[in-house]
């Protein structure tokens, strides 16, 4: 039992003023700590859920509890700003408990949930409250929320300011049909009207950028042929849409962001927009950096996503663009569904839901490709943690630095393991990564200094912008 500690010098007859006991400092020490200044041997000091110091490995305060990681690397927790949790309404596809437990197992400590596939979609303050109530008490990592922009006439334009005040991290719109009737896509005119509002709010607008005009003229996908699916979503659908977004950014001054870029040829427009000083940014996903169309088996609908996985040359150009700094980061676009919705029994790419289940595997998938191309742990941290965190306005996440949340991942970058889908924590063990060897092994994940991987309590918080 610890005696109470009181402050001396109180007046006679008064109870002494309690003096708070200092919180014990936890120290994680590694010969490879991945900081914004590079990979160094260091001791990371944690108290009150924050990083209080990053010192030399032997600079340990008296009484601190030390976890010595040796050669295991210590990385910042990944920040996945593109996750479809689907709860409420489609929790049989995925839910907050399963999605966030999977994230924790994979070294992801913060996710931002997309506004669609749940019912209701997050297109009003009331819907946001419903979503937050569904998530409350069952999140294993920190969770924020995107709002949505819907309809040919931007039906919920009047809701955007209220949603922004309620703390959403920005607004998502589709230029092409979303696949669910309760989240209709917007016209370019409607997006322009919404962009003028989000520009005034200083809010980020994130866009599924495929041109419906191009998609309408492409042959429809049908049957088990992946080539049929690929032909139905040509690169021109992305490049035309992204060119329109660049023009819209120039006209409105809005911060526009291209989600899940697959067509690498659009990077030319992204570079031109950056050179013109436009507020247009872009991300990509691990599956576009990991798989190539030439190797997707017919009938393997777990590979179906929109835009589609493209050819080998396209993959290499995406890696080049990432290395050149043309993308803000790599995020999962975790969009799982049940086997029946994925048409697993028929293998029909025309009827299957388009989405890749990967929230648990994203950092490892990126590391696998990065390592084989000569990139290091500093680049990995920048692409899956710091870049996405900064883009979403989470400056206290995604970095090992004094004052940041102590969201940390113990990682063995030299080991590798075959993905056993049965061991994944998301609701359905259906992923194109099944059977694939990925480099890197996550040994432990910490959220604000506390372990969250494995059978541990749900310690996540619901975030507001």
SSE inventory with pairings:
Blueprint: E1 6-7, E2 17-18, E3 26-35, E4 38-47, E5 50-55, E6 65-68, E7 73-76, E8 78-83, H1 96-105, E9 108-113, H2 125-135, E10 142-145, E11 147-148, H3 160-165, E12 171-174, H4 188-201, E13 204-208, H5 212-217, H6 226-232, H7 235-252, E14 255-258, H8 267-275, E15 280-282, H9 286-290, H10 312-323, H11 362-372, H12 377-391, E16 408-418, E17 437-447, E18 450-451
Parallel strand pairs: 3-6, 3-7, 8-9, 9-10, 11-12, 12-13, 13-14, 14-15
Antiparallel strand pairs: 1-2, 3-4, 4-5, 7-16, 16-17, 17-18
Description:
This protein is an alpha/beta fold. It has one domain (77-396, 428-438): Alpha-Beta Barrel (TIM Barrel), CATH 3.20.20. It contains twelve helices and 18 strands. The chain has helices at residues 96-105, 125-135, 160-165, 188-201, 212-217, 226-232, 235-252, 267-275, 286-290, 312-323, 362-372, 377-391, and strands spanning 6-7, 17-18, 26-35, 38-47, 50-55, 65-68, 73-76, 78-83, 108-113, 142-145, 147-148, 171-174, 204-208, 255-258, 280-282, 408-418, 437-447, 450-451. The strands form four sheets. Strands 3, 4, 5, 6, 7, 16, 17 and 18 form an eight-stranded mixed sheet that branches. A five-stranded parallel sheet has the order 11-12-13-14-15. A three-stranded parallel sheet has the order 8-9-10. A hairpin with a 2-residue loop joins strand 4 and strand 5 (50-55). Residues 29-56 form the Allantoinase composite domain.
């Amino acid at each position: 039992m610890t005696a109470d500690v009181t402050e001396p010098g109180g007046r006679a007859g008064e109870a002494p003023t309690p003096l708070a006991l200092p919180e014990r400092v936890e120290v994680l020490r590694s010969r490879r700590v991945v900081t914004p200044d590079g990979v160094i041997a260091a001791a990371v000091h944690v108290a009150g859920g924050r990083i209080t110091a990053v010192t030399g490995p032997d600079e340990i305060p008296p009484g601190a509890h030390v976890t010595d990681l040796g050669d295991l690397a210590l990385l910042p927790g990944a920040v996945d700003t593109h996750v479809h949790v689907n709860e409420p309404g489609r929790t049989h596809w995925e839910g907050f408990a399963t999605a966030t437990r999977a994230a924790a197992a994979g070294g992801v400590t913060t996710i931002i949930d997309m506004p669609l596939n749940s019912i209701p979609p997050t297109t009003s303050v009331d819907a946001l409250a419903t979503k937050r109530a569904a998530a409350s008490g069952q999140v294993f990592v920190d969770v924020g929320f995107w709002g949505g922009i819907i309809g040919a006439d931007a039906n919920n334009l009047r809701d955007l300011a209220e949603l922004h005040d309620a703390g959403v991290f920005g607004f998502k719109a589709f230029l092409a049909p979303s696949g669910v009737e309760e989240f209709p896509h917007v016209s370019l005119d409607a997006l322009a009207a919404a962009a003028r509002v989000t520009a005034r709010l200083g809010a980020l607008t994130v866009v599924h950028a495929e041109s419906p005009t191009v998609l309408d003229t492409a042959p429809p996908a049908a049957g088990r042929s992946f080539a049929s699916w690929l032909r139905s979503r040509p690169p021109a659908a992305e490049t035309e849409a992204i060119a329109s977004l660049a023009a819209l950014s120039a006209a409105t001054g809005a911060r526009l962001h291209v989600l899940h870029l697959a067509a690498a040829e659009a990077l030319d427009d992204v570079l031109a927009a950056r050179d013109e000083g436009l507020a247009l940014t872009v991300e990509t996903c691990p599956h576009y950096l990991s798989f190539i169309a030439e190797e997707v088996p017919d009938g393997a609908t777990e590979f179906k996503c929109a835009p589609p996985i493209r050819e080998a040359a396209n993959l290499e150009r995406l890696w080049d663009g990432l290395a050149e700094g043309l993308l803000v980061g790599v995020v999962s676009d975790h969009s799982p569904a049940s086997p029946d919705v994925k048409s697993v029994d028929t293998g029909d790419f025309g009827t299957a839901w388009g989405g890749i289940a990967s929230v648990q595997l994203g950092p490892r998938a990126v590391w696998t490709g990065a390592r084989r191309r000569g990139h290091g742990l500093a680049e990995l941290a920048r692409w899956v943690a710091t870049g996405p965190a900064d883009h979403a306005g989470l400056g206290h996440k995604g970095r090992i630095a004094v004052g940041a949340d102590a969201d940390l991942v113990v990682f063995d970058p030299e080991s590798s393991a075959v993905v056993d889908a049965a061991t994944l924590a998301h609701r359905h063990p259906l992923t194109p990564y099944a059977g694939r060897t990925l480099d890197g092994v996550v040994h432990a994940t910490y959220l604000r200094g506390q372990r969250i991987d494995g059978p541990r309590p749900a310690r996540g918080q619901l975030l507001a912008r």
